[in-house]
From TrEMBL:
Family, as annotated: Belongs to the unc-13 family.
Protein's GO biological process: exocytosis; positive regulation of neurotransmitter secretion; regulation of dense core granule exocytosis
Domain C2, residue spans: 129-322, 972-1095
Domain spans labelled MHD1: 620-737
Domain MHD2, chain residue ranges per copy: 850-957
Keywords assigned by UniProt, alphabetized: Cytoplasm, Endosome, Exocytosis
Region (Disordered), start-end ranges: 15-43
GO molecular function, one term: SNARE binding
Keyword Cytoplasm recorded: yes
Listed Pfam families: C2
InterPro entries named in the record: C2_dom, C2_domain_sf, Munc13_1, Munc13_dom-2, UNC-13_domain
Protein name: BAI1 associated protein 3
Keyword Cytoplasm: yes
Length: 1145
């Protein structure tokens, strides 16, 4: 079995082999190290266990921290954009004013319609003065007004009227119709198109084709045989957006064939209709009317038209279905057409528009407005601004985007502005995520410069990775809002799956690896900041360990937060945050603690060193903190056996041994104090000290359970040590309780003293009952199984014997102390009990037995009431001791009064039976089988024999001799070989004394033996004389002859009838010496059916009888006490002669 020295050496070898992964320089042990020769100032012992409780409850309290206001996000100086110059702001302001002045379209309800309100807003955004505004406004008004264009997208139509047998071949014609214009005549002459007529003339025309020049009419493709055509064609019309009208016709295209011929072809194809259907079509054609000349037979059929005044188009344009209108009241049309209309400027007269692209200008304008808008809400909602701007801002931005003809994707790229703003201002990530999704939905690579998006994606990604690296400061888990924002920020993972991101950033397709690197680096830097904060390399060794405990506790709290909060946030980016951060922190902690414990173990190896209490507490707290940290590995998805803290307990073996000694010392101090300040407990039969002792044991047990020592050999050593500590502390407590009661016994009356003694016994029983659960509490079976696995069955047996032996010895010690307490009680009761026993002994025969015993029973009853009320049910030791004391006192009284009248013994027999029932208490007291043992049997036998006659006692004497003879197997007095057989007809018993062997030497190493044979008892064989053999000189192995006796059946039937063989040593100068004797019951030879009781009895095998020199002395004393009985005195005289000869030998 590994010894403590082996454990220490093992720890030293292990820490010497392991290299520290940290490179910090360590200072040598200072003079103030707690592992020195000089003991520190002792701490209050009562606080020791309170501190232990605090350490054990550390894991529960670790996450209980106050909610703190999260700090501002980290700002990377490299990302902060430069301030815009005043000149650029003036140019941008001109662009904004130009946009307001040239607004077109029907404004949306959320737009601001007043120019003054918009100008007032722009003054605030650009920090512009009134005079500067007036100058720029005048410049804009004098500049050339914007030229507008109309983009028409003919998408599709549905539910058109069938002109050609259930279908049509639709196409669209569209153009601009001129309205009343206030422009000068010179301007009219400059128009590119000559088709403009007055509206009333146009209404008399049959179609747009008849009044518009061919070069101004635009036509879509013909979609054959469908009533739901899809065109998706785009056209650009240029004209006066304030007065002109967009006109669109949908017609059915006809080839140069008549209707009849077309119908005939349809019937040939379908085979479903005939001339009736042709007539229906012809009627339809006629009902629609035609103003063409008779030569124009094959004109395209009219399906409907749409007229849209340009000044009614909304600012954002149209994207809707328009219902087809008839050409006249006589026309019949049906269906709808989907058009997308957008008005924009084809030419702008501003300085920026001549220098920069529309997209760049819009981005600058948006950035300026966003910066202003965000500044207005930062004080109210600094973290949650969702990018929503005020109505004036939205009005300006919308008009500028429409006028500069930005596509939906280009508008979505305002993401660049917000993502750039996010790098130096706090912003809601839901806005950025929404913009990313819009880009993905509108993605059209040809319309966007890839380098613009790639830069914004790169900058945003790098900034988010920087925030992730510092997430503990930027997004503390104590703020629910910060965690929500962090979760939204982790939407960066969405970027990796975007088509735009894959196109413009083809080399950054492993974003989760970048996130993993950021998390790992951030975790490492955060730990280094902890080290810099607590400085565990400074101060004495104890101070260093305390600081290390603070570091590990902070790490455990961080790991707990990571597991509960941060980890699930990273699911979206497919990163196992907990595993990355835990493995990094666990490795760094293990490196630092290993370095510190190397120094501790090295110091403990010095013979003169000792572990102080404060240092022991610190080492224990460090162990518990590491255990908590190690416990988080159960949440790792992979095998965690090779982690750095796997065998960290080996660093603490020697120090934990010394720490357990400190725990033992403090436990003894606590027990001593508990005994000194002991008080009763309400509604309990034990006192406060017993509660305090078991509470102390519970705390020590909890300390061990929390240690959870994984090494089976080390666990056995520690469990053995703890068991020994528990046992010695329990015995110490019982001894202190006994001494305290002994000191106070003279100052208390009988009742109070009895109550106090009961409480003391209950205290000891309370502690003993608690320690009875040690095998379960310290998991002895687990230790045995572990030792069996490592050392086999022999190791298991060694553990079992060692641990149970300690518990058994402790139980014996507690019983000894309990008996010592009970002895104090019984000694105090002894005078009264002696007086009551003497009363029974001296009571005359005329007094009734109940009256004689009554004083004793009343005294016992009063005492029993006190004991029953104050003793726990399990504590029957007091009753047992009282019972045994009374038995001994009665036995002494009977022994002192041998040879008196039988009534004397009958009275004490009655007393014993009464006491037996009293202490049994109808099954609630002592068990009958326990009471009827030991002294009870002796007393019962004493009373029974004293009531017998002398002859009965003599017979009993021989019965005991016969019983003793049967038990003899080998004695130092030798043996005798005899052959006895009985002749029933002659009633003659023949005894052949064959020889003796190994007789004791009574005369100089030799003897002169002879044998005396008698039939006993003499009153049964009054006519039989004793006979003797010849003397065999100078031998220890004599050979003798045969003798004869007359024995009747009435005599040998008694159980006590026997032959006695007394071996004597002949001495012719003095009395013969007694060498030994043996007895043989006659029933063995004379009883009918025995082989010896027949004619062939001579042939039976001889019997070997072992000699002895013992006598049943109690019977001898009883007979000796009967001085007036001649038979008794004669019997005793003969026995005394033999005893006298033995004494002379």
């Amino acid at each position: 079995m590994t010894t403590l020295l082996d454990l220490k050496s093992s720890v030293l070898r292990q820490v010497q082999r392991s290299q520290s992964l940290r490179t910090r320089r360590e200072a040598p042990p200072t003079a103030s190290s707690p592992l020195t020769h000089c003991p520190p100032e002792p701490l209050p012992r009562a606080e020791f266990f309170e501190r232990m409780n605090a350490i054990l409850q550390k894991q529960e309290n670790m996450m209980r921290a106050a909610q703190a206001e999260p700090p501002q996000e980290h700002v990377d100086q490299a990302f902060i954009s430069e301030r815009v110059s005043r000149t650029e702001l003036d140019l941008l302001y001109e662009e904004a004013v130009y946009t307001v002045v040239n607004r077109v379209g029907v404004p949306a309800p959320e737009h601001v319609k007043s120019d003054d309100e918009l100008f007032a807003y722009l003054l605030k955004v650009f920090d512009m003065g009134d005079e500067e505004h007036e100058i720029i406004l005048q410049k804009v008004q004098e500049s050339k007004r914007a030229s507008f264009s109309l983009r028409v997208s003919v998408m599709k139509a549905k539910n058109l009227m069938a002109k050609d047998a259930n279908y049509s071949d639709p196409y669209c014609m569209l153009g601009i119709l001129v309205g009343q214009s206030p422009r000068e005549t010179e301007e009219k002459k400059e128009r590119k198109f000559s088709f403009r007529k007055r509206r009333e003339k146009l209404e008399k025309r049959s179609s747009t084709k008849e009044v518009l020049p061919a070069r101004c009419i635009q036509v879509t493709e013909v979609k054959p045989e469908t009533l739901n055509p899809v065109w998706d064609e785009h056209f650009v019309e240029i004209d006066d957006v304030h007065n002109d009208l967009l006109h669109l016709d949908i017609r059915d295209h006809d080839d140069d064939v008549s209707v009849a011929e077309a119908c005939k072809k349809l019937n040939e194809v379908s085979g479903l209709r005939g001339m009736g259907y042709f007539k229906q079509i012809a009627k339809s054609v006629r009902s629609n009317g035609s103003s063409s000349s008779g030569s124009e037979e094959n004109v395209d059929d009219f399906l409907g038209c749409i007229n849209i005044p340009l000044n009614e188009i909304p600012v954002a344009g149209y994207d809707t279905w328009f219902k087809l209108e008839p050409r006249s009241s006589a026309s019949k049309v049906q269906g709808e057409c989907h058009l997308i209309l957008k008005v924009f400027t084809s030419q702008r007269d501003t300085a920026l528009s001549k220098r920069d692209t529309n997209f760049s200008i819009h981005k600058k304008l948006l950035s300026q407005i966003v910066e202003y808008e965000h500044a207005q809400v930062k004080q109210r909602e600094p973290y949650n601004w969702n990018g929503q701007v005020s109505p004036p801002a939205w009005t300006v931005l919308t008009h500028h985007a429409v006028q500069t003809d930005l596509s939906p994707l280009q508008q979505a790229i305002r993401w660049q502005c917000y993502s750039n703003h996010h790098r130096n201002q706090r912003l809601c990530y839901s806005l950025l995520l929404r913009l990313l999704r819009t880009i993905d939905a509108e993605w059209d690579p040809p319309t966007v410069r890839g380098d613009l998006l790639s830069d914004s994606f790169r900058l945003y990604t790098e900034h988010c990775l920087c925030l992730m690296k510092n997430m503990r400061q930027v997004f503390p888990c104590t703020s629910a809002a910060a965690i929500t924002r962090y979760e939204l920020m982790l939407g960066i993972g969405y970027m990796q799956n975007m088509r735009a991101f894959k196109t413009v950033c083809p080399l950054r397709n492993e974003l989760h690896l970048d996130i993993t690197t950021a998390v790992k680096k951030g975790t490492s830097e955060w730990y280094e900041s902890l080290i810099a904060q607590y400085k565990p390399e400074e101060g004495s060794l104890e101070e260093q360990l305390k600081k290390m405990v603070q570091v590990i506790d902070a790490v455990c709290a961080d790991v707990q937060r990571g597991q509960n909060i941060y980890n699930k946030l990273f699911y979206a980016v497919k990163v196992d945050y907990f595993s990355i951060s835990y493995r990094q922190l666990e490795k760094q902690v293990a490196d630092d603690v290993n370095v510190a414990m190397e120094r501790v173990c090295g110091t403990l190896e010095q013979e003169s060193s000792r572990l102080t209490q404060t240092m022991g507490e610190t080492i224990f707290e460090l162990f518990m903190s590491l255990k908590i940290l190690k416990g988080f590995r159960e949440f790792l998805p992979l095998d965690a056996k090779m982690l750095a803290l796997t065998g960290f307990h080996n660093w603490f073996k020697s120090s934990i041994h010394k720490f357990l000694q400190i725990v033992h010392d403090r436990s003894c101090d606590r027990i001593r104090k508990a005994v000194g300040t002991d008080q009763p407990v309400q509604q309990a039969k034990h006192s406060c000290s017993a509660v305090e002792v078991t509470a102390c044991f519970s705390q020590v047990r909890e300390i061990w359970l929390q240690l959870s020592w994984p090494d089976s050999a080390g666990a056995f050593i520690f469990v053995t040590r703890l068991t020994d500590n528990f046992c010695s502390e329990a015995v110490c407590y019982s001894e202190m309780m006994t001494r305290k009661i002994e000191r106070n016994q003279l100052a208390r009356d009988h009742k109070n003293f009895t109550v106090q003694l009961c409480i003391g016994l209950n205290n000891v029983e309370h502690v003993r009952a608690f320690l009875a659960h040690l095998p379960r509490d310290l998991d002895w079976p687990g230790v045995e199984r572990a030792m069996e696995e490592s050392c086999g069955a022999e190791g298991k047996e060694q553990v079992y014997k060692a641990l149970n032996g300690q518990l058994f010895n402790m139980d014996l010690d507690l019983q000894r102390e309990a008996k010592r307490l009970i002895t104090v009680l019984t000694d105090k009761m002894l005078p009264e009990l002696r007086r009551y026993i003497q009363h029974i002994s001296l009571s005359p025969d005329s007094i009734n037995n109940d009256d004689a015993v009554s004083p004793l029973m009343k005294y016992l009853q009063d005492t029993m009431v006190i004991l029953t009320a104050n003793l726990v049910k399990e504590n029957h030791t007091v009753l047992q001791s009282m019972w045994e004391l009374l038995l001994r006192m009665i036995l002494d009284a009977v022994t002192e009064n041998r040879g008196v009248q039988v009534e004397f013994y009958n009275r004490f027999q009655y007393t014993v039976e009464t006491l037996l029932q009293f202490f049994h208490v109808k099954g609630d007291g002592l068990a009958l089988e326990d009471m009827k043992s030991g002294d009870y049997k002796v007393l019962d036998e004493e009373l029974r024999l004293n009531k017998c006659s002398s002859f009965d006692l003599i017979e009993q004497y021989y019965l005991e001799k016969i019983s003793l003879q049967k038990t003899l197997k080998h004695t130092p007095y030798g043996r005798i070989s005899v052959k006895c057989y009985y002749d029933p007809p002659e009633q003659r018993l023949t005894v052949e004394i064959l020889h003796a062997a190994d007789i004791i030497a009574l005369d100089a190493n030799l003897s002169d033996p002879f044998v005396i044979v008698e039939l006993c008892p003499h009153h049964l064989f009054p006519a039989a004389k004793s006979q003797r053999t010849q003397v065999k000189l100078k031998t220890l192995h004599p050979v003798f002859d045969e003798l004869f006796y007359h024995v009747s059946p009435e005599q040998y039937r008694h159980r006590y009838a026997c032959l006695t063989f007394t071996v004597m040593d002949y001495d012719w100068l003095s009395t013969n010496d007694f060498a030994g004797e043996a007895v043989a019951p006659l029933s063995d030879f004379c009883w009918p059916g025995r082989p010896n009781a027949s004619a062939a009895g001579k042939n039976v095998q001889p019997v070997i009888l072992h000699l002895s020199r013992s006598k049943p002395k109690p019977i001898m004393r009883m007979l000796d006490a009967r001085t007036g009985d001649r038979e008794a005195q004669e019997f005793v005289r003969r026995l005394k002669e033999i005893e006298k000869s033995m004494e002379e030998d």
